[in-house]
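Late entry, written up from scratch paper. The run itself happened at the end of the previous shift, but nothing got recorded in the book at the time, so transcribing now.
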Amino acid sequence: MKNNWNDDVAKQRKRGFNLPPDDYVYGIKSFPASVEVDGVAAALKQYCTFEQCNEFIPKKLIVRDFIAMNKATAKLGLTKTKDVDHFRALHDIKKEICFYNCTRTKKKSIPSEIVHGIATRTAPPIRDLIQNKYLHNWLHQNSIRRCKELLKCENAKNVSRTVYLTKASLLRQHRPKIDSKLSWKIPYFEKVSGIYCTNK
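Output as recorded:
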């Protein structure tokens, strides 16, 4: 029983985090002494301004462009890993990765004549409304549609209704001929006539 005893049973759960060690320094500690800190509030921010960050972080970083190298190997028809590695060793294609100002896109200027939302529909002229022009156009379109449907039905009737025979239909209609001759018999039984014997 003592071997199965669990030490974590009946213990309180730890809520929260432990304090840092005694030698921990709060505030800005990663920058050199040349950077001036304006008071305690600025020291406790744990981050620097945009101008100070630009001094320590490079604006451009040059790295190998594997996408361009893979495209070049595909164009040359190199598919094996050895060939691809050999190509990468001889042809080193690089690209620049920009930070901050390079990545910021310029704001597109919105033209003054642009209309936000759904454009308003032009109002129909009053003359067309009074003359019921839209009703006449609708009736005319319906009559054209009905004429097309009638022509389609007539053309369907005039189409020849000949049934094309396929191999499956021919096999279905086939009736094999049955010979009227009797099946083969042993010569001995040909002379013997049939005898019906009923024991009642």
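Helices lie at 39-43, 50-56, 66-76, 81-90, 126-130, 133-158, 167-173, 187-191.
(Scratch paper discarded after transcription.)
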